[in-house]
Automatic annotation (TrEMBL), chain A:
Residue span, 4Fe-4S ferredoxin-type domain: 5-34, 51-82, 83-112
Listed GO MF terms: 4 iron, 4 sulfur cluster binding; metal ion binding
PANTHER family, per database record: PROTEIN NRFC, PROTEIN NRFC HOMOLOG
Originating organism: Shewanella gelidii
UniProtKB keywords: 4Fe-4S, Iron, Iron-sulfur, Metal-binding, Repeat
PROSITE patterns to which the protein is assigned, alphabetical: 4FE4S_FER_1 (PS00198), 4FE4S_FER_2 (PS51379)
Keyword tRNA processing attributed: no
Keyword Iron listed: yes
Protein's UniProt name: Polysulfide reductase subunit B
From TrEMBL, chain B:
Primary residence: membrane
Membrane topology of the entry: Multi-pass membrane protein
Keywords recorded for this protein, A-Z: Cell membrane, Membrane, Transmembrane, Transmembrane helix
UniProt-listed InterPro entries: Electron_transfer_protein, NrfD-like
Organism of provenance: Shewanella gelidii
Positions of transmembrane segments: 20-42, 54-76, 96-119, 148-170, 176-200, 221-238, 258-277, 289-309
Top-level taxon of the source organism: Bacteria
Residues in coiled coil: none
Family affiliation: Belongs to the NrfD family.
Protein name, entry field: Polysulfide reductase
Length: 190, 315
């Protein structure tokens, strides 16, 4: 059976330390000035002294219905056998249609290869060796869980079956494979 | 700003810049000018059709030249301009861009073929007599080429709208009316450019019969354009949420000025105001050229407004 790789970001556990951001840059040799993964820190929310922040992971959402794959004129953006949205940099002409079409704005032009680039769950390196993506391994608070949602016994299946989760901009019908467990603490949006 | 999470410049929602707006303008201009030229030729003409009319000659020049300039814009805007051939050999037919490439691949050579047919008597005058045998060889196929080119021109004119309306991340772009708006404003640019070239390059008289027929199209085309703009904005308003928020582009920032001064003031206002002038004045060469240039400026401003304001608001 095909794998359905998903990632879960538990926003209660995240502390916004950016270890994932740095590990990603190092693992994937991401050039200076561009980023595959950021955790945006929003807030503070609440009344002092009970202040808290919210943490929003910004990276490729690995949509099951990916606008970038649909709009790519040459097929340089495609789903691999396990559904991971992948870029064939040799087929990319750099028209930026995918960069414009991505609702999450997580695609960028790699200044070295001149091709579109983004997170691919470390599929050519760590995933190929059977390891978790760099961001998942490095997270000090275990806020990230990665695995095959088609396997009912996997950690991700158990989490998605037991915790409330949401996906970013689900109203656009993109069906992201990044799930988020919302923070338990509320906060009034200013 | 120095965030702990790093550089934010790549997340700027405006991805496509003025080069793309100029390309959208030139592609619409090319298609619009050929549609007007061929359409008027098909509509009953009272004068002898053995001789090519100046407005059609103008369209025959603008059609291929504008599309080539537009494609040059497009290619040099790629991050890998010298790999552009990849887009000609790899096709993803789910992508509007790939379908557009295919349409342009047929449209561009046909526009050149049609130009040679229409301008066959002018080629020797311009030192291109070596093309005359090709023009004569193509002449018997004129009806076929003309028909195909007309259909492809509708495709090219509308495709520029479909290209950007396919992105559901941008509420102002992701509307059904955009391809129609682009097609109609392309017609308005095409008619304007045809009259400029007919007057300046092919020495049309200001009272030329064909020029007059084309001139009578301008107000109805403009009325449809205004209607489509109204439909676009009311659709955003009633959709609410991020779509309604995008309407702020009409009241704030640089692109509000581009819209109200460029599109409305110059593009619609100047031609309409000139209609109030006495007939003798408004049918002077200078007045006709001013009106045509105002229309062209308006359409160019509209492309810029849609590209920039459209990408500035994300849902």
């Amino acid at each position: 059976m095909k794998k359905r790789y998903v990632m879960i970001h538990d926003e209660n556990r995240c502390i916004g330390c950016q270890a994932c951001n740095v590990a990603c840059r190092s693992e994937n040799s991401v050039p200076e000035g561009v980023t595959r993964l950021q955790v945006r820190v929003e807030g503070p929310f609440g009344e002092a002294p009970d202040l808290h922040f919210k943490y929003h992971r910004v990276s490729c959402q690995q949509c099951e219905n990916a606008p970038c794959v649909t709009v790519c004129p040459t097929g340089a953006a495609y789903f691999d056998d396990n559904g991971i949205v992948t870029i064939n940099k040799d087929k990319c002409v750099g028209c930026m249609y995918c960069v414009a079409a991505c609702p999450y704005k997580v695609r960028f032009m790699n200044p070295e290869t001149k091709a579109a680039d983004k997170c691919n769950f470390c599929k050519d390196t760590r995933l190929a060796r059977g390891e978790d993506p760099a961001c998942v391994s490095v997270c000090p608070t275990d806020a990230l869980t990665f695995g095959d949602a088609n396997d009912v016994n996997s950690e991700v299946s158990k989490l998605l079956n037991t915790k409330i989760s949401y996906q970013d901009k689900s109203h656009l019908g993109t069906q992201p494979r990044i799930y988020r467990i919302p923070t338990k603490r509320g906060g009034i949006q200013s | 700003m120095n965030n702990i999470w790093g550089d934010m410049t790549q997340y700027e929602p405006v991805t496509w810049h003025w080069v793309i707006a100029v390309y959208l303008f030139l592609a619409g201009l090319s298609a619009g000018s050929l549609l007007i030229g061929i359409g008027l030729r098909w509509a009953k003409s009272e004068i002898n059709s053995a001789q090519e009319v100046a407005t059609l000659k103008a369209a025959a020049v603008i059609g291929p030249v504008a599309i080539c300039l537009g494609l040059a814009c497009l290619i040099f805007d790629l991050t890998k301009p010298f790999d552009f051939w990849l887009i000609l050999v790899n096709y993803n037919f789910e992508s509007v861009m790939a379908i557009g490439v295919l349409a342009l691949l047929l449209y561009t050579p046909l526009a050149f073929a049609y130009a040679m047919i229409v301008l066959r008597d002018d080629l020797p005058k311009w030192g291109m007599a070596f093309l005359s045998p090709i023009a004569m060889a193509l002449l018997p196929m004129r009806k076929l080429i003309e028909g195909l080119l007309f259909v492809l021109a509708i495709g090219v004119g509308a495709y520029t709208g479909f290209l950007i309306s396919a992105m559901n991340a941008y509420p102002m772009l992701n509307t059904a009316v955009l391809p129609a708006l682009f097609l109609v404003s392309g017609l308005s640019a095409g008619a304007a450019a045809n009259s400029v070239l007919a007057l300046l390059m092919f020495n049309s008289d200001v009272h030329d019969f064909e020029l007059g027929r084309m001139h009578r199209l301008e107000v109805p085309v403009m009325a449809v354009e205004i209607l489509f703009l109204l439909m676009l904005f009311s659709a955003l308003y009633f959709k609410g949420g991020a779509a309604a928020a995008a309407l702020a582009s009409l009241s704030t920032g640089l692109w509000a000025n581009v819209f109200w001064i460029g599109v409305v003031g110059i593009g619609f206002g100047v031609p309409l105001l000139f209609m109030l002038l006495p007939a003798a004045t408004r049918h002077s060469k200078g007045a006709m050229l001013t009106v045509a240039c105002a229309s062209l400026t308006g359409v160019l401003a509209l492309r810029h407004f849609i590209v920039y304001a459209g990408q500035s608001y994300i849902s």
